[in-house]
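Support case: user asked for a sample of complex input and structure output to validate their parser. Sending the pair below.
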Amino acid sequence: MFDLLDRLRVWWSRGRRAPFAVSLFSLAILGRQIAATQEVEYACDDVYRLMDQFAEAVLRGDDAAPWMPLIRTHLERCPDCRAEFEALMQALRSPES
Amino acid sequence: MSSRRLRDNDEWISALTSTGQAQEAALADLREILVSGLRRGLAAWLEPHSPQLVSLAEEASQEALVRILAKLDTFEGRSKFTTWAYKVAIRIALTELRRKQWKDVSLDQMLEFGSEEGREASVVDPQTGPEATVEQWDMLAQIGRILQEELTERQLAVMQAVALRGIPMEALAQKMGVERNALYKMMHDARLKLKRRLAREGLELGDVMATFEGSNTPGGRVVRGGSA
């Protein structure tokens, strides 16, 4: 029985490979992302698990944890996690938090 | 002046896992904290005093309380309890916000930019890039060819939707019926595959980056893979 990931894999790899064109603008953006790709990257769940610790560390100016660069890299790539992190930082900027 | 009681992590856990009045008081306090935090946190997305923001903050806080109670045993105490609770509430609120914002847009519509761009634009015009050298054009053409050989149109369309159009991965994932985490992993695999292929072809990434940093690349110009 297919689980959700199998379904995504099927959907992801289906489609023609016939010639298609790519604009220079696309190449520029995608090229930068490809060039900056790391062998090991945190996915959204990894970042979510650590986001509260990360936000507090950022507020303290503490950059010591070895996983922090992996989170920073993910936040640069993933607009969804970046939005959640920014919202969390805004929520924490208050005396009551 | 709020009559809310200040609690440390242990006191939050203790109160929330108790019963009766102690738990009710802790839930009421936590709800108030979450609503207030969401109103600050979501101000970049919705007008600060708008009914939409107030309503979303209250609904998301309520749902967050249920989720927090169910997941209390996963709180490891590595941050303040309220920071962890904010994180849960913000995920719920932004997921709901994205769902509402994209509910009338189909998956095909989300992806059509990439495919339409591909269909419409099929001309290589070296004359239109005054800043691009022959070598840069050649490199872009090679990258275009590799994209074409390694990706399906659908894969490219998803990557373009996120990278170029700013469509949230959460919105795409919802339409696809999968978790955003799985979608991110698929996209990472695709980027990694392309990066390795570029390396095998002897295309230095430093050169690639330099090409992109230096080139003026409006959206209408196109390189057809392998034809330049």
